[in-house]
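Dear colleague,

Thank you for sharing your sequence with our group. We've completed the structure prediction you requested, and as agreed, I am returning the results in plain text so they can be pasted directly into your records. Please verify that the sequence below matches your submission; if there's any discrepancy, let me know and we will rerun it promptly.
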Amino acid sequence: MEKPWSGRFSEETDEFVEEFTESVSFDRELALEDIRQDIAHVRTLQKAGILSEEETKKIIEGLKGIEKDIREGKFEWKRELEDVHMNIEAELIKRVGDVGGKLHTGRSRNDQVATDERLFLKKETEEIINLLKELRKALVITARNSIDLILPAYTHLQRAQPIRLAHYFLAFREMFLKDTERFLDCYRRIDELPLGSGAVAGVDFPIDRHYTAELLGFNKIVRNSIYATADRDFIAEFLFVCALTGMHLSRLAEDLIIWSSEEFSYVDLPDKLCTGSSIMPQKKNPDVLELIRGKTGRLYGNLLSLLTVLKGIPTAYNRDLQEDKEPLFDSVKTLKGSLIGIRKVIEGLSFKEHKMYPNAGNFVLITDVANYLALKGIPFRKAHHIAGSIVAYLIEKGKRLEDITLEELRSFSELFEEDVFNLFKPENVADRRKTYGGTAREQITKLIEVALREEGLK
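Please find the predicted structure tokens below.
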């Protein structure tokens, strides 16, 4: 098959080269963006007087016919035509005749593909932002419904201090809110039009790039033709935000995997989101959560892959940049799936208070015993030592903190009074954290109200 550049060459392209260099097997993901761009470019050419009204109409009708076939899965993609752009252009010429060959006037595949990718990323970023919002809503509703459940917070995976479960879910809501802000910020830099930059030096036809930007819905125009065709920073930044969001998803998934184990048994996962074992009948495996955790590695790998491609290529466009698409498409698919999966899990969780509450007592309360002494005037470092000595004593005696007597406490400090026993209830200790952002019920209630309003749930 004749190539669009065949005039320069004396030999036909080797079949290996066709197979090795083709990208249509994956870049056809950009087909609808490519046709949308084509139509805008044709209208721009008409405005510049390069195409007549009749030619413009004929080309656009041909493109819309191709678009229909693509949407219906009827379009035949040809590997020998290399990429999505040439497949569409060749089919257009076949359908409308030589006038279809005017489509590529004043344009290079270098600015064409960069435009497709930005159009694709604008759409996908908006979808990811919406998925993040749905996840945040689920977290807020779960927080509201679990405000009276007490469990230990963990540091170093050791029981630390009692918190209300709602406080935990609001923490992840904050993480995903920051992720949303990063996607919104990234979107601003995606929303710039490179089309009209040509191969590298600009275009020598009188096209109006501002008009094209208006047709395609871009807020800005890339101001330098070299940068416009060589830049993939916007993809690298997007992949970084995907990776960071994936990290938050992975940490949430890890917690829920641990909490659903029989050793913790804090939560029960919905059966419909788990799988079983082919050999062990008792198993209920948290496969969705495990895959969310595992797929975060793909998000990291995709980011590193693109950064490695970009680091050594000379300015401006090089064929290496073809390698930007598969990591991009994979990260989009992976992150969207993970966001949907974790939301479904959150919405289906049930909690086991009888397992959580006891673990929020005993030595988890001892920090407040030290604080009790500090409020009595003992320097905190000394109060800390006394509280630690109480822990050592109780471990030796095989007793819980709740079982200690006032007489035993006074053997460590005469400042202990009856009121110290108010600290031996996890909910009382949690509710002492009344500073803004703390785990006290009154603070959490206020922040849930704020979150409900921010998420449009109230």
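Summary note from our side: The chain is about 60% helix and 5% strand.

Kind regards,
the structure core
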